[in-house]
Protein 1
Amino acid sequence: MSLPEDRIDHWLSYIETLAPVEIDLGLKNMRLMLERMSLQKPSFKTILVAGTNGKGSCVEFLRNYFKEQGCMVGAYTSPHLFHFHERIRIKDNLVSDEELIDTFKSIEALRGNVPLTFFEFTTLSCFKLFHESDIEYAILEVGLGGRLDATNAIDPFACLITGISIDHTQWLGKDLESIGREKAGIFRDHVPAVFGGTHLPNSIMELAKKYSLDFNSYGNEFSVSKQLDGKYQYKHIDGYKLSFKLPNFGGKEQALNVASCLSLARLISDEIPFNELNFIKAIDNSNVLGRLTKDKHHNRSWYFDVAHNEESAINLFKNVFNENIQGKTIAIFSLMSDKNIERVTELFLSQIDHWILYEVKNERSMKKDDLKNFFSLNKTSLYIANTLQECIEHAIKNTTADDRIIVFGSFYLIGPLMKQLGYNLN
């Protein structure tokens, strides 16, 4: 196959063709390529952020904290909402088309016949871009699991697991102990690590002991609770306390994400002396679109959230339906076919007055006929939309200023629909 033209969309399409499957967990090809790229020991230190939900939020908190501390920091997240460039930040900047294309060409020249998935190829691109910049630390969001994820090919300097729930069972296992074991595969000997979930599986605790980690977990070493003044208080068993406001995005679940990042910031204080004023400033300056993003469009109240598994759906439900309204609630919804639609929609089925269903442009998308069949069996009011604009127009036509519209179920729905409404990264 000939190389694509010097256009970023052509290159991204080309990269998608380099492996026979979309997901191929394993580090053999990553380590082989890192050796060819002379990147086994890069110029930067990595912090790995794993977990089922909240990874992107924690990457943003940590990125801003390192920046406030005067560190040169990069961040790698996935998937993106609007443009691929969002995945790789060097300091405060997104990478350019030219930088990406040059990096893609360099990796492709070394690849030979090594089959690389899209995520492996782009993770290598991230490593190369970071290595060639002057960043000191890279905050990396683990793509899937941990132990065999491409981001885990470089030994981390610190680790954070946000918490775990049932998701991606075909790759990670069908129970929390199995999933926890995969997530904790990012641990290394004597590396600081934090677990920020409400339930600590034995498998994670066993690996923490095996690697003699400097380990903090929620409910054991630290806790967080809401105060009468509306702020949240972090408490550590060493006596340290800190009050903070929730960030300007997301819901109440962000309190635990903030507390987990605070624990990690304190654990690495030998390397980067902890500064609580900088930490508070970092949280206040953080923002991630698509995490309970609330806004007004066409005189309607809209909620945008990338919730796509049971735990995130429960959080979204609590945050939205905690707010009473006079009118009705309708949803614009899509889901990937490998997700459990029963668990994602369970709480919403009796509360949503009308569903607008859409099949997103992705091979893994749940087909519109399957969406229709599921909601028909549950005797819900529904409408099948064929375009994003049709989703928007139908939602507006069937609501008033007293109603609200929730958009959730998939990154591949939230980003394009927000873009259609005029959103961008700024």
Protein 2
Amino acid sequence: MNGAWKSYGCIFIAGCLWGTNGLFVKLMQGAGSSSAYTGFVRIVLSFLILTVITLIKEGPKAFKIGRNTLISCALLGLVCQALYNYVYSSAINSLGVSFACVMTYMSPAFASVISYFLFRERFGSNKYLAMILNLIGCALTVTGGSLNGVSLAASGLLFGLASAACYSLVGIFGRIASGEASAYVVATYNFLFGAIFLGLFGRPWTTVDNPLDAGVLFYGFIYALIPTGICYIIYFSGVSRIKESSKVPVVASVENVIAVVIGVLVFGEKVGIVNMAGILLVLGSIVVMNMELPAGGSRRMRLKIRPDAHGHATV
């Protein structure tokens, strides 16, 4: 398996793990946590867990990083953790859970534009098609084709677009930071800065009666360990080796599919034909993003396989 497929495979696995987020959120809220405190506990405990793992695996010297890497990690914590939590929660309050989630998956469009200016990534017809399929697929998967009860307030739409922009920057900032530091170090600093900014601006511990509740902290530890800490190590390991950041949100959108599957298997939620069609479109968009549409003549799609400088095939 070549390096590109391994990298996108890491992002795909991370997306699958992120799909379990809803399960842990419900468990923590059932134990008495609030939405704000759940996010804060997840980030703080992830930082502590990753600090221990990184010290064991790479030693204290690994935390000595360059200024540019530190700035990228700080932006990850500020924009992709703290600010994202705020704007996404605000979008949910204004638009409802389903539509806010759908708007977040406009992130591939933001990632493509930003990547064009930062990394000079080209726009191919496959990217346009994949982004359209992905957005429609996510919308159908989450909503089942119904937007009953949705309130399209202007402020809510702005918060939704902001959440998409923040989400799109995870892969971009992660790619920049991971270029000079290991995935372990980047993930650790990411959560350090995220905890600092969330704590300073949100004070989430004031939203619960007992911040040290044993049940909340137990579920929070599992949440921080598997679909957060370990997941981000896998994710940053993937984005550190990719050449097209605009593909990342589309591949990671498998999170949406896993979330629906867990909803059915664990919580007994019903899934209709429209939801299933959305799941197929999401999976199809991931395939299309890694294929090439010929400019003319044949209508067939083909994988973009080309030799790198060492003679190995890359996608």
